[in-house]
Amino acid sequence: MSLCDDCFKGVRHEGEPTGKIEQIGGVECYVATPEGNYSKDKVLLFLMDAFGVSLVNNKLLADDFARNGIKVVM
């Protein structure tokens, strides 16, 4: 199986992450918290790909869930 040049190109989503890096149980996590009222008894656990917490696109996706009222821990 051969891969084309486009298989290795990525796209950086526009925007700046708004969540925060926090230590949870000794693990560095990115936490995106909704503004205003949101369900405090639910959280989305975002299991990321091989690029991990440092990839901006992952953070921006977590922020988008938070803008829609869901707290995210990545």
Helix-strand blueprint:
Layout: E1 20-24, E2 27-32, E3 44-45, H1 56-67, E4 72-73
Parallel strand pairs: 3-4
Antiparallel strand pairs: 1-2, 2-4
Protein name: Dienelactone hydrolase domain-containing protein
Organism: Laetiporus sulphureus 93-53
Structural category: alpha+beta
Percent of residues in helices: 10-25%
Written as H for each helix and E for each strand, in order along the chain, the element string is EEEHE
User: How are the strands ordered across the major sheet?
Assistant: 1-2-4-3
* Largest sheet, strands/sense/barrel: 4 strands, mixed
Compute the number of strand runs: 4
Average per-residue pLDDT, rounded, comes to: 91
Shape: elongated
Query: How far apart lie the N and C ends?
Result: 33 Å
Strand content bin:
15-25%
Protein name: Dienelactone hydrolase domain-containing protein
Organism: Laetiporus sulphureus 93-53
Structure description:
This is Dienelactone hydrolase domain-containing protein. The chain is α+β, with helices and mostly antiparallel strands. The chain has one helix spanning about 55-65; strands at about 20-25, 25-30, 45, 70-74. The mean pLDDT is about 90. The chain is elongated, with a radius of gyration of 14 Å. The relative contact order is 0.28.
